[in-house]
Records
---
Amino acid sequence: MVRQIYYGRPGFGGSLSPGVKWLLIANFGVYLIQTFAGRELIYLFGLNPAAFWSEKVFWQPLTYMFLHGGMFHLLFNMLALWIFGGTLESVWGTTRFIRFYFIVGIGAGLSNCLLTPGMGVPIIGASGAVYGLLAAYGILFPESIIYIYGLFPLKAKYL
């Protein structure tokens, strides 16, 4: 089996690798659909822990990751995906990177369902998956410097 590796540099982004590109396109595409479809999409595909347990809407731990609460919510999640995801994909390869992204994103959603089973408000956004990427980046590149707000240097292991 041949595995393509896309080398980015630890720190700020790197090249736009195939997995990151696919996730960016999917998130921006769903956001456009969400903008025109209205709030009904959030209630059907956002993760509602109470509905997850009572109505058996088992697709929601997957679909909530592609919905966002506004343009800035989407932009900050996708910026973090680009910054950390490209480097991780260059180390792991596309298949492993995408698998990890979905495992941590779905895991974050299921954790919410376990910790707040009666909550009836939908959870949306890719933040759970992005935090998983950030944790993996901190483990693999602990000495890499990340600038908070572009000003304050912090080692990845502390972030």
---
Amino acid sequence: MKNIRFYLLTGIAIISMLSISSCLSIERKIRINADGTGTEVQTFNIDRKFYELIYSMVQAMDSTKAASVRDSLYNHEDMLKPIRTNLSSKEGIELISLTGTTNNDSSTTYRFEYNFNDVSKIGYATNISAKDISGEQENKSEVVWKDNGSTINFSLLYKPDPGDDLNQEENNKAFSFLFANKNVNFEIEFPFNIESSNAISTTGNKGTWTFPVSELMLDRTKKLYLEAVLKK
């Protein structure tokens, strides 16, 4: 049961976020103000195929526990509590809302919204895992907001684990097929127009970035990196 919840959380964060055919997608919509404050709404969807896979695996190993495991997977508080604990404990972050919903097709949708008093704080929402909550893991995202006078340099770099845990690496390979064709999407609204960036598309002061979840899982050297130069 603990391992199941761990991999759900790992998948959500990527990016420990970052860890199903078509089961997990993450959407991050961020608005940054000129003073570096802002708001983010993050949504992640977990397809029913993931729950069906876990249920069938547990049923094959111990059918007497299958029903309780299925109920636990759909217990939204098991997912929401670690996120609430993580974000509520971070200075400069104000959690506005946090919800979990079971959809008609038995998929689930989790969404949270928060305010931040400094753009660097968005890094905390990139990595929400069991180690973060226990205090064993430092924030793995590096956010830069450098004001050069006429321009601002923005970047977000997610730093993956070093890859010294062979069991985790094998588990990532075993579960990677679950994340095929699913992405982590960023949509950021800046206070100034984008002059240049590595976004897949830009319109005025908005940029969009997309990263395949499977690549982030299988290639431990793969970096989730966003950058943009803003013209003031």
